Amino acid sequence: MKPDDLRAMTLDQLEDEALKLKKEQFNLRFQRATNQLENTARVRVVRRDIARIKTIAALKRSGQPAAAPKAAAARAPPAGPLSSRRTGKRAAVCGVASAPEEINNSSAPPKPARASRSSRSRR
């Protein structure tokens, strides 16, 4: 069921619709248990419709205005193929950093190379 249709309903109508869907969900569970369920996707749709009805009913009870659907045009397009928040080594691998100075910006000197196993003294 469409959210706009649900928002237009009263609380009593929403409760009646939820009750109807719960009965359908009960019947679908029995059909699944007896291997008679043909449309398995209907279980998911009914479950989500019940949740949608409960959410809108709770919003109406609390007096909060129902959220308007998000417009796809309101979203900003991504700045580029990669996120601008990537930094460090991962950014260099992904091609975001433009110079090696941006990657290794620590002032600490590099660690000395570790001695190989054969050159270490034995105890």
Give helix and strand order, one letter per element, not per position: HHHHH
Q: State the low-pLDDT regions, or none.
A: none
Q: Give the helix/strand class.
A: mainly alpha
* Overall residue-averaged pLDDT value: 78
Question: How would you describe what is shown here?
Answer:
With 123 residues, this protein is mainly alpha-helical. It has a domain at 3-62: Helix Hairpins (Orthogonal Bundle), CATH 1.10.287.310. It contains five helices and no strands. The chain has helices at residues 3-8, 11-33, 41-62, 88-94, 100-103. Helix 2 (11-33) packs antiparallel against helix 3 (41-62). The longest helix is centred in the N-terminal third of the chain and has 23 residues, at 11-33. The model has no long low-confidence stretch (mean pLDDT 78).
Q: Key features?
A:
123 residues; mainly alpha; Helix Hairpins; 50% helix
Question: Helix and strand layout, with pairings?
Answer:
Elements: H1 3-8, H2 11-33, H3 41-62, H4 88-94, H5 100-103
Helix pairs in contact: 2-3
Short description:
With 123 residues, the chain is an all-alpha fold. The chain contains five helices and no strands.
